[in-house]
């Protein structure tokens, strides 16, 4: 059983302080994400302990709830953003511009100009046209843009193809063969571009690190060579991507995964003259959020038993988009009930609208509640109002 979610006296309790999730039933007025800030703090501390020399820039696309962000700021992280919306939200949460790394392939003129005005920590540059655009806007405003080159080493980290980003078939980063051209742009614009870093992000939900190690081994000599010509080059940004175990939730296994990851970073970057930056998202927040949802109908057909919920792909897209697994747990423990096989589905008019297929659960009845676990990352942040359904609510404990 998930250590973040445990039954006490038949009631499901959540988080660091084991608060009963039944507290939310009395006031229930639709699906709600519940976040436990205490356990986010524990995860940040664990990661900082494992990577003592790295600065963490939380990838806020995973969860941009204001209270979650404020807590993460309080725990001493910066933030990795990918839009002006995220920049504004980060500032609202208490981050300062020097805490902000700006990633993303499609930075508009407006976004770049505002980020330049604010004087953010670093732009992670994804293409030569973007580098030229940043140079031009910096020059027009008499500013110097701190840039890091996001390099694409064409390495497979064996994750779902939709969240792999380090292959040449992906839109992310710049191929290493472009370095001579990139350096020409840097030289031609040396008054408006300051090369402060190189960066990589190979993809998300990484559960083994041979590709990650290979990428670091490829990039270190490039970093060292560039350092000879660019005196401001100090940051080595290793991106995010550390995975978690959704199916066999095991914190000990996850901690040894973190240690293995940290070993690779230490082996490959420990001896170079660099300030290591990391951009974790999922690992910090996934376990610290659950989605509480109510059964509207139990629908039996010749082939299936459907639990039709008031929440679906509109609130948690991961199962529909990546066939992702999330544990599903009844709010009340009914040990006397028979185990049945259910498809747990939502209200949306799409057959991809499911949380789980053929999932074994104790018999469930109309009006009861389920918890979708490990929904703190890429849950609410990917929610939509498709079918003009309301967005889910969010509360923190
Ligand atoms: N840095 C960059 C540049 C990224 O694009 C991402 C995630 C991260 C860091 C953080 O990666 P993490 O540590 O969370 O793996 N919606 C998908 C995940 C998409 C990740 C996008 N980029 C999912 O639900 O699995």
Question: Spans of 5+ residues with little confidence (pLDDT < 50)?
Answer: none
Beta-strand percent range: 15-25%
- What Rg, in angstroms, do the CA atoms define? 22 Å
The structure class reads alpha/beta
What are the distinct ligands in this entry?
A: ligand LLP
**How far is it from the N-terminal to the C-terminal residue, by CA?**
21 Å
Tell me roughly what share of residues is in helical segments. 25-40%
In round numbers, the mean pLDDT is: 96
Biggest sheet record: 8 strands, mixed
Secondary structure tally: strands: 20
Number of helices: 10
Question: How would you explain this protein's 3D organization?
Answer:
This protein is an alpha/beta fold. The protein contains 10 helices and 20 strands. It has helices spanning 37-50, 66-74, 84-92, 109-118, 128-140, 179-188, 210-229, 251-269, 282-285, 318-322; strands spanning 5-8, 11-14, 19-20, 32-35, 54-59, 78-81, 100-102, 122-125, 145-152, 174-175, 193-199, 235-237, 275-278, 289-300, 305-309, 328-330, 339-345, 354-362, 369-372, 393-396. Strands 4, 14, 15, 16, 17, 18, 19 and 20 form an 8-stranded mixed beta sheet that branches. Strand 14 and strand 15 form a beta hairpin. Helix 4 packs across helix 5 (128-140) and helix 7 packs parallel to helix 8 (251-269). The longest helix is centred in the middle third of the chain and has 20 residues, at 210-229. It is elongated. It starts with a strand and ends with a strand. The model has no long low-confidence stretch (mean pLDDT 96). It binds ligand LLP.
């Amino acid at each position: 059983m998930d250590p973040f979610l445990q039954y006490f006296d038949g009631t499901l309790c959540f988080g660091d302080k084991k608060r009963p999730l039944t507290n939310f039933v009395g006031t229930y007025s639709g699906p709600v994400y519940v976040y436990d800030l205490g356990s986010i703090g524990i995860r940040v501390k664990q990661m900082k302990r494992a990577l003592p020399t790295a600065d963490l820039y939380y990838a806020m696309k995973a969860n941009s709830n204001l209270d979650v962000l404020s807590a993460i700021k309080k725990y001493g992280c910066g933030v990795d953003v990918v839009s002006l919306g995220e920049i504004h939200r980060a500032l609202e949460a208490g981050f300062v511009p020097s805490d902000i790394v700006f990633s993303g392939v499609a930075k508009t003129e407006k976004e770049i100009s505002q980020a330049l005005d604010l004087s953010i920590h670093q732009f992670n540059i994804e293409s030569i046209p973007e580098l030229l655009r940043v140079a031009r806007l910096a020059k027009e405003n008499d500013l110097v843009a701190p840039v890091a080159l996001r390099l694409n080493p064409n390495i497979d980290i064996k994750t779902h193809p939709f969240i792999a980003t380090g292959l040449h078939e992906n839109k992310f980063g710049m191929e290493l063969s472009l370095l001579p051209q990139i350096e020409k742009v840097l030289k031609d614009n040396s008054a408006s571009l300051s090369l402060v870093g190189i960066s990589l992000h190979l993809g998300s939900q990484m559960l083994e690190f041979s590709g990650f190690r290979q990428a670091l081994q490829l990039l270190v000599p490039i970093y060292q060579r560039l350092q000879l010509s660019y005196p401001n080059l100090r940051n080595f940004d290793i991106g995010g991507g550390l995975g978690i175990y959704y199916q066999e939730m095991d914190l000990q296994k996850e901690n040894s995964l973190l240690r293995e990851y940290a070993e690779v970073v230490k082996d490959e970057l420990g001896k170079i003259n660099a300030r290591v930056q990391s951009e974790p998202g999922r690992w910090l927040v996934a376990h610290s959020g659950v989605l509480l949802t109510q059964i509207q109908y139990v629908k039996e057909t010749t082939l299936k038993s459907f639990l039709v919920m008031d929440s679906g792909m509109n609130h948690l897209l991961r199962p529909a988009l990546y066939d992702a697994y999330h544990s599903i747990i009844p709010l009340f423990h009914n040990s006397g009930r028979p185990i049945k096989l259910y498809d747990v589905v939502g209200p949306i008019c799409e057959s991809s609208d499911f949380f789980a297929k053929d999932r074994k659960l104790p018999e469930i009845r109309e009006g009861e509640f389920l918890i979708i676990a490990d929904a703190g990352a890429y849950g609410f942040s990917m929610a939509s109002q498709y079918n003009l359904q309301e967005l889910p609510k969010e509360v923190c404990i």
